[in-house]
Amino acid sequence: MAFVLAAAMIVLGIAQRTIFLEPNSVSLSATVADDARFAVVESSALNAVPGSQTITVSGSDTVFLAYGRTGDVKAWLGDEPYVDIRKAGKSVALSSKLVDPGADAEADPSTPAAVPETVTNPAGSDLWLQEFTAKNTVTTTVKIPDGISMIVASDGEAPAPTEVRLSWPTDNATPWAGPLIVGGGVVGLIGLIIYLLALLHLRRSHGPRRNLPRGPRMPRLPRVPRPKAIKASQINGSGKPLTRSLIAVPVILVSGLVLSGCSADFWPVVSPPEAVVSATPAPTGTAGPAQDVPPPAVTVPQLERIVTGIAALTADADANLNVEAISTRFTGPALEKRLANYKIRAADSAIAALPSLPTSPLRLTLPQQSSTWPRVVMTVLQDETDSATAPTALVLRQESPRADYRVEYLIQLEAAATVPQVAPAAIGAPIIAPDSTFLLLSPDQVAAAYADVLQLGEASPSYGLFEAEGDTFRTQVTELKTSRKAGLPATASIEFGATAGTGRTVALATNDSGSIVAVSLTETETVKPVDAGATVSPEGASKALSGITATAKGITSTYADQLLFHVPAAGSNEKIVLLGFSQGLISSTELP
């Protein structure tokens, strides 16, 4: 009975790993129409089966695959027709359908006409969290949560790949196979031991019997020859006793079965107790439930990829004075300063280039909470190889879904600057309206007020609003004016001016109900001869930019300032603090 039970257990355990074994993955496929240039694999399709997704796309010479937030993917497509691939109802299957947003918009007269985009290739877009490009076929395994979709294309002009296949690993472990196989071996071994003990008992039961009474003596019979003894080797082919061989067979069998069941898939898994995770409180200053808060414009890895690309392009453009290239990644005051430096260096190669962008990890990331455009992101970088260099703050802007992020402000932070507490990058911060009255000073008034302080000093009505201690820019401007006046000959006069610049004001909320505000200023320096026949001669960058060696009319040099402030909330006892600045000559012209 033990041998029958052992055989049944072993056979059942082996059957679980062979004929009864489930597949180790589930696959679903969808087809893209031949003439469609784009396809979108919706979040419902990617998460039709739990687990990480392996996606294989094929059917065109060039295969492009990227994933991003579903809203961003649809925003990039705009009015472009695309094949929508999603989970078909409640069944585990995929459906594909051609969607034409442009036709839907034309049917609704209240929908404004979309502005046509010149960019048609989705490769390299700043919206994607990750992208893949290959010839003929792309296969990748990812772990994508809800709310994320994939865009499939070729080059945006040719038809998209025609075959999309999704697969997910499944749990085909057989936790009772190991116990059944090993248990069967143990039961078989126990049965063998019982059988051997029974044989031993039977042998002993044939021992000497007790003496019986003697009867009459029988006549002696003739002796029969004794048969020759048979050796053990003549029975089993070896010199070993038969009982040892009988024992070795089940031992070897059980050992093999035990080793075959060493895989974790053969045994039950006891899950450790789940750790208790406390919920993270929502940051102060966010209104309404979390689902009503727009998502952050970018993720940290996404922004690191963007900034790394900008840094590489900037280094190449700076080295080659490439105006066209730098214009693709810079805008506003930051671009204005870069272009002026290129012009100056083209005229005088001895003048130094502007500082390059660090490529180290981001120290701070503050994206705008936004699902629309334009979008703004602020980040701080620190060169890890040169701790003496001040950190660099970037303010980037993306005008539309298919546009790249461009550097609008590039500012070196003050050595003693303390950036106020801001929301985590995963939450982001709301943009503050330029005319907001909830701050100590409206963002659109900060530039003009600070320019007045630079001009009038303590006589300015705005002087008490700004923190003077630690403001090295104000000190630098004052010292520069003094030295310029002292070095001017008696035949010339100098005038200084400061006004709010033309750059857009950018304000992002901080955790203390205040705001980080980026603004631009324009400073002018006008030098005129005061005596008849006298001339003035510009020097250095002013000479290179103007192309003038001497003039009897006078010359005006214009400097662009990029400034970063922390503006506290209205009613606060704190003052507006300058966090960083950047200044550069952008124009030098002869007076009319």
Topology diagram in text:
Layout: H1 2-16, E1 25-31, E2 38-41, H2 43-46, E3 53-69, H3 70-77, E4 82-87, E5 94-99, H4 101-107, E6 130-142, E7 148-153, E8 163-169, H5 177-204, H6 233-236, H7 242-260, H8 300-320, H9 323-326, H10 332-347, E9 362-367, E10 375-381, E11 392-398, E12 406-413, H11 443-456, H12 472-486, E13 492-500, E14 506-509, E15 515-529, H13 540-546, E16 555-567, E17 577-590
Parallel strand pairs: 2-4
Antiparallel strand pairs: 1-8, 2-7, 3-6, 3-7, 3-8, 4-5, 9-10, 10-11, 11-12, 12-17, 13-15, 14-15, 15-16, 16-17
Write a concise keyword list for the protein shown above.
eight-stranded mixed beta sheet; 25% strand; 13 helices; Jelly Rolls; elongated; alpha+beta; 592 residues; 17 strands
